[in-house]
Model the fold of this input.
Amino acid sequence: MNLLLKTSQANLQGQIAVTGSKSETNRLLLLQALFPNITLANTSNSDDSEVMQKALVGNEEIVDIHHAGTAMRFLTAYFAVKEGREVVMTGSSRMQERPIKILVEALAQLGVEISYLKEEGYPPIRIKGKKITASKVTLAANVSSQYISALLLVAPKLENGLELTLEGEITSIPYIKMTLALLNDLEIQTSFEGNVIKVYPKAEVATKEMVVESDWSSASYFFSLVALADTTSITLSSYKENSLQGDSELVSLYEKLGVKTTFQDNKMTLVKQENFKFETVNFELNNTPDIAQTIVVTCLGLGIGCHLTGLHTLKIKETDRLEALRIELTKLGANISVTNDSLTLVATNTINPNVKIATYNDHRMAMAFAPLALKVPIIIEDAGVVSKSYPDFWKDLTNLGFETSEIGA
Done:
């Protein structure tokens, strides 16, 4: 489905209920599988979370997680500790290009049996679950936090818990802290001192309902809309000021892009600041790489430059996001350059209209470019890809006054 997106609305007003955080939901789904007396509320309705849930409750030998990278990492660790269970983990053609070797080698340190069925270091993989008594793992600190969280989530069910030593400078600390905070909410004892993380074993947890906060990555597109509109007041639920999610850094980042955020009753309201003086921004996004696409598109729409760093993990996401951004922004008339871990956009006041934005099977490409419709009509190719994390995205934009129409290829 190709979607033509445009609006004559320069004044955006509305209230949006955003689906629960995919990051929190997938962690809690795994914990619920380990401790079945946990109940969950406000879970994500994303494709990724549905795939995760299906895999956890199913008994199939072949587990196909399609494009869901988080599910691949988390489930690899989960099935590794399921004594007597043997599965083949596979996914889409892109998933079979995304590395899993770091996690497999970490699990091998615990004595887990995992073998590659095609190319070494990549899915599909065969996992033979077993009882684990080893408890010490060493891992490079600059890897995707999902590898680290996968190990931490299963750690309470290891006979002797887990002592994880991270070598080098740690990246994506907020996501690691989110995982530890969820474990602590279940009264599972943890510690994080220096480069050593410990999770202590726990056979059972108390019965408890865990309420998932709404997804901050999904909120980023509304921050972008507010920055690009003339006047706005958009209220989003359900959010808290002291969030576990790293992308809550949006509040301070977008303050530098003219957006003021206030919190009340588990809702946040975004308002455009009047007479704001915009200037080139330099953001280090080591802890929040998923919002880089949103920010660079916002800057293009505002006619300002930006220099974003700490983006090395974007090259192994649903697509090589840095290269995809370079290609699509260039179509729009942007002057953009990328390296292995950074992106630089030169200020311009010209945006080419009616450009077709390729989405590369990447939900964030589709949603990050959508706010530009406030400036020029834009065509989003394969717009249905948003279902990966935010199935109601186009409906919510329509409720804010955007016009969407399906067009041919």
Summary: The CA atoms of residues 260 and 340 lie 32 Å apart. The mean pLDDT is 94. The longest strand covers residues 11-17.
